[in-house]
Amino acid sequence: MKLKSSRLLLATGLAFALPAAADEGMWPFNNVPAKDLQRKYHWAPDQAWLDRVRLASVRFNNGGSGSFVSDTGLVLTNHHVGANCIQKISTPEHDYVKTGYIAKTPADEVKCPDLELNVLEEMEDITARVNANVKPGMTDALVLESQKAEQAQIEKDCNQKTGLRCDTITLYAGGEYDLYKYKKYTDVRLVVAPEFGIAFFGGDPDNFTYPRWDIDFAIFRIYENDRAVASRNFLPWNSAGPKEDELVLVSGNPGSTSRLDTVAQLEFERDAFYPGRIENYTRRAKLLHEFSDKGPENARMASRSLFGIENTLKGDIGREQALRDPRVMAKKAAEEKELRAKVASDPKLVSYAGAWDAIAAATGAYAKRYRRDTVMGRALASAPELTTARTIVRYVVEKEKPNEKRLEEFRDSKRESLEFALFSRAPIYPALEKVTIADAFKEMAERLGADDPFVKKVLSGKTPEERANELVDGTKLADVTLRKTLINGGVKAIEESTDAMIVLARQTDPELREIRKWREENVESVDKTNGALITRALFAVKGKDRYPDATFTLRLAYGPLKGYAENGKKIPFQTTWAGMYTHSEEHGGKPPYDLPRSYLDARARVDPKTPVNFATTADTTGGNSGSPIINREGELVGLAFDGNIQSLGNDVVYTDVEARSIAVHTAALMESLRKVYNAGAVADELEKAARATKKSSN
């Protein structure tokens, strides 16, 4: 990690000697910088191109992206995006995460128990409606309450009118609001998944590095009414792929960035948010490694959680290091100082001058209670059944309130998605839940003290281990029928329930609600009100042709395929099939560099020059995993799956000096389907759809 840290700092330092990169930006589809693209690349997408790509793009609601790649409902994403489903359909006898899965016929395509996919049908600016009832003189808390009530009504009206999932999206730190309308799919079936060993070849040591040789993909099919969806908008497959310096575009759902945050907010992330997360994830990773070491079945149960934790941990370490680089913070401070000076000197803008100080004061107050609040909430969400219990208790209570007064996740417009998740039959692992709950309770007692009233309430006079065993042994929430009975029974059923998890959720919900209420009234409301003022100032001073921070909604990024120089060494823009075997051999073929037997057997069948991974300057972050890489013709040429270590600082300050997004080449995917897995039927389906599209366009 020390080597990687220095590489990250070098990359961010170099960036400040350069002008703003032209390819920076994660652009909403209703605000794509067509003029910039035309000026630099002599090409820009027209509305038909944008509409087709938008409707071919898919959001995986568990935190990733994907795309339709055939007219028969096939959806392509990363293995690590689909791994939740892959693990949940596995059994002690068949670990499909480890061995992979190939559906030989449509009847073999296995339904994911709780996976929801979204396609963005329409976007609408609703800023004026959200602020319609905001009056001069309102406190920040009352402004937020008014905005949320209006959002609830907008979403409900939209859902009732269209039948779509309707989400209000906050943009520009509260400066604008859009309504996103999604077509929702919940019958998603696994078609192809490779072995974990090739999807995550090189393991954690190679994670967030480049060069790479990962064939990180999974193929699903979407069904409606038990029939494969006829997907009219899809991305035709192009196995030739892109060339060096060729422009490519990325359509996906980046999770979050902090580029518009104030210096005070970035300091909070640096000094409180990331240190707390890193400490917790380090502890959890150690726990899961110890659990996994006890046997192969333990390792299977913990594999998905462990992968997610270690992936997040490594990313968080990189982002914290970027924030600790004095050059990063100096750059952000200089930008903020310049904007504030222009606001203070402009009579039309001077009323916005206090916005930064208001956010700083709210952030400072939050920092004082952040650790305690976080530890409390984390302990009660440390295992699936604990989370399920709290969701059920809150859902029943919130249903009794008017829609506009409910917590956002329990609004009428969210009901179908909520109940789909609650009533899914995903597997529960009691042995794993016991150790994770026990450790979370132990951490809570260590951080807050054994005499803390909340700790005493949670532990109920027992040790963390005893209490965890009591809770897991005393719940029947794995039974979906019981969940439905509790929800249908209303408040009376919750109050009378003796289920151990429900009782704990019922007892601790008041404290957790107080935490949330305080944060909304004293931090979120201040941030949004004053963030909106800063946005107005920014637009007035520098113009509106800029993108908002990422919000796990559909965005378009772009840039060429390009290598880079690192410590005087030239890093190539792409890697090859032959290099995959060389990389394994250089590490003695030992884990995590041991290639699956299927790839060892296929070595002679695949052209060694076949491209495997490539690097692009396109601006991406977490949530973009599984995003399609697209050429100007709207064809699929790659599959985004990672960024290099230098890209982690891009969440705060974008640079294309060394930072790169990493993708799987379509040629490697097609060779894997045909020559490694003998999945010719799926390959034929992909290429047939592509040929038909090309023929119809000629």
Written account of the structure:
By secondary structure, the chain is an alpha+beta fold. It is built from 24 helices and 21 strands. The strands form three sheets. Strands 2, 3, 4, 5, 6, 7, 8, 9, 10, 11 and 12 form an eleven-stranded antiparallel sheet that branches. It is globular. Residues 1-21 have low confidence and may be disordered.
Proportion of residues in helical segments = 40-55%
Overall mean confidence score, pLDDT? 95
* Helix/strand structural class: alpha+beta
Percentage of residues in DSSP E strands: 5-15%
Rg estimate, integer Å: 25 Å
Q: Segments where pLDDT lies below 50 for 5+ residues?
A: 1-21
- Helix count, DSSP H or I runs of 4 or more residues: 24
Q: Count every beta strand, where a strand is a DSSP E run of 2 or more residues.
A: 21
Categorize the overall geometry.
Answer: globular
**Distance separating the two termini:** 52 Å
Main sheet record: 11 strands, antiparallel
